[in-house]
Amino acid sequence: MSASPETVNSPEANISDVDMRLKENDEADQYLTFIMADEEYGVDILSVQEIRGWESVTPIPNSPIHVKGVINLRGTIVPIIDLRQRFGLESIEYGMLTVVIVLKVESENNERIVGIVVDAVSDVYALSNQDMREAPDLGDHVDTTYIKGLVNVDNKMVVLLDINELLGGKSISEINLSAIKEIDRESH
């Protein structure tokens, strides 16, 4: 197995610090992993903009339950998605380890910045495509298009997510865009 972990110690780790430690393995892709409901998930580290501790958000009226609201991140209005609720998992109270991973998401027409709330950040793994297995076909009732693959690392299964599928287009378009534009005008 060519997976090699790099531990991220702080909930507010700077991705450039992590990136400096990962230069030695250029053949593999790096994935930032995080914990939700005692399961480990990963996203391509190239899509990660920053990792922040939980802070309060400005709620958006008429938004889906998984859209917690928005934050103003250095002049950019960023929607915050509770990934537990997006996956239909039980909600928990946010604590000291709760983090927001700020991601660059590509959709059909553009790029946008989105934050996902997760229980805790775990590790950074260097994984090759041959380590990855396809998600099983669970029939028409379970959407697995957002699962890039599954990988076994240190005897645990890690679900690698395709954030462009998970958070692009439909998921974010459900947010009341006029409310976001109003908040953006007020913040300038």
Task: Explain the overall architecture.
The radius of gyration is 17 Å and the shape is globular. Strands 1-9-2-3-11-10 form a six-stranded mixed sheet. A five-stranded mixed sheet has the order 4-7-8-6-5. By secondary structure, it is α+β, with helices and mostly antiparallel strands. It has a single domain, classed as OB fold (Dihydrolipoamide Acetyltransferase, E2P). It has five helices and eleven strands. Helices cover about 15% and strands about 40% of the residues. Residues about 5-10 and about 15-25 have low confidence and may be disordered. The protein has helices spanning about 15-20, 85, 165, 170-175, 175-185; strands spanning about 5, 30-35, 40-45, 50-55, 65-75, 75-80, 100-105, 110-120, 120-125, 145-155, 155-160.
